Amino acid sequence: MKQLQFSLIIIIIVICTGALAGLIDIGASWLSDIKEGICRDAFWLNREQCCWSANDTTLDEERCSQWYSWAEMVGIKSSGGGSYIIKYFFYIVWGCLFAFTAAMFVRVFAPYACGSGIPEIKTILSGFIIRGYLGKWTLLTKSVGMMLSVAAGLSLGKEGPYVHVACCCGNIFSYLFPKYGSNEAKKREVLSAASAAGVRVAFGAAIDGVLFSLEEVSYYFPLKTLWRSFLCALAAAFVLRSINPFGNDHLVIFYIEYNEPWYLQELVPFILIGALGVLVVAFITTLLSFPNPYTRMNTSEMIRQLVSRCGPEDTNDLCDYQRNFTDPKSYMSSTFAGDGVKRAIWQLVLALLFKGIITVFTFGMKVRL
Questions:
Q1: 52: helix, coil or strand?
Q2: Which residues of 134-147 are buried (b: 16+ CB within 10 A; e: fewer)?
């Protein structure tokens, strides 16, 4: 009986998660295309589907007879400067409208729907209770907000929030069974499985979804939850593939097929590229660090100079102030920054930019200790 109840919860969760993922993908694709034009005879179709339905004798990815840009909708048929300006204007207006609508939905209906939600999911699965964070209004607002924010062109994705959406489904449907709805420990087993389903529909990786739930979000993860999470991830992928939101039988839009195997001799250039990559970064670091004294010195020495108080005996550029040492009364009031201070400020600004950029590449190589 216990296994039957959990199986029923899993089935309901994966159907809800897969259906919502498909709906979000379809809605985001349609809204993204709306910024550039509309299918005049069937406005509910995105650009690709609209061109599929057109009876064109030739296939042109840039234009089809059924798809009308906003410049054409207002009566401008030419492709000159006027058409470009109209397209530009509508693109900006739609993008701002989508972003504003998403923000207002979150602000008015569910403030908990902001962000990816993964840090809070980790907190909940570690034992804390956040009332309303996995509620129905949060689920609805999160789903609509994901479509609008992605369609607005903001530099964010919908992959991370899928975990929040899946956990909302798990929390809502767990109340159908008192054993899981009234027991926080049992409910966390459901949420662990739901988070695996969220990763699965986001990236198309069942095992990675289970590992994510095991290593990242769950504080307590018994063996039985491992198999349940894997089953939940597989079932969610099956539902999403049945919906086929991208029209290519793939779970994610960035799916790649590897049809050719790799060969042993190909490892040699890969090893050389990795070794030379480290040398290139080291060469660029030393080449650009030497001209600036603040990038040439180590970080501890630079911080010591920045926080140290300047005295009469200090001669570095940061302490190059014009002072009247003969008059104690005017010692503080007649202090002016010299050329050394101005030069040091510019050097520190350049050091900040250089360190910020080179640190990204250095950390990405994973050769640090």
A1: helix
A2: bbeebbbbbbbbbb
- The answer to whether the CB of 98 falls within 8 A of the CB of 151 is yes
pTM of the complete model? 0.63
Antiparallel, parallel or unpaired: β 321-322 and 336-337: antiparallel
- CA–CA separation, 139 and 135 (whole Å): 6
By C-alpha distance, which of 161, 168, 158, 215 is closest to 190? Answer: 168
In terms of Cα–Cα distance, which of 56, 77, 57, 55 is closest to 68?
A: 77
Which are the contacts of 152, defined by CB distance < 8 A and separation ≥ 6?
95, 96, 98, 99, 102
Task: Give the distance from CA 221 to its chain's centroid.
Answer: 26
Rounded-to-integer distance, Cα 356 and Cα 351, Å: 8
Q: What share of the chain in percent tops pLDDT 70?
A: 73
Residue 185: CB partners within 8 Å, gap ≥ 6?
220
β-strands 67-69, 37-39: how paired? antiparallel
pLDDT digits (tens, 9 = 90+) for 10-23: 778 878 888 888 88
- Residue that is written with structure tokens 């234009």 in the block: 63
Cβ(151)–Cβ(129) below 8 Å:
no
Q: State whether residue 109 is helix, strand or coil.
A: coil
Phi and psi at residue 24, in whole multiples of 5°? Answer: -65, -45
Report pLDDT for 119. 83
Per-residue pLDDT of 144-194, as tens digits, reads 998 999 888 887 777 678 888 888 988 888 888 887 778 777 788 788 778
Q: Where are the domains of the chain?
A: 2-54+63-243, 264-365
The reported pLDDT for the residue numbered 199 is 75
Check whether domain 2-54+63-243 has CATH 1.10.260.40, yes or no: no
Backbone angles phi, psi at 129, to 5 degrees: -120, 120
CA of 250: how far to CAs of 75, 151, 198, 204, 205, in Å? 38, 20, 16, 9, 12
Task: Give the mean model confidence (pLDDT) for residues 315-339.
Answer: 65
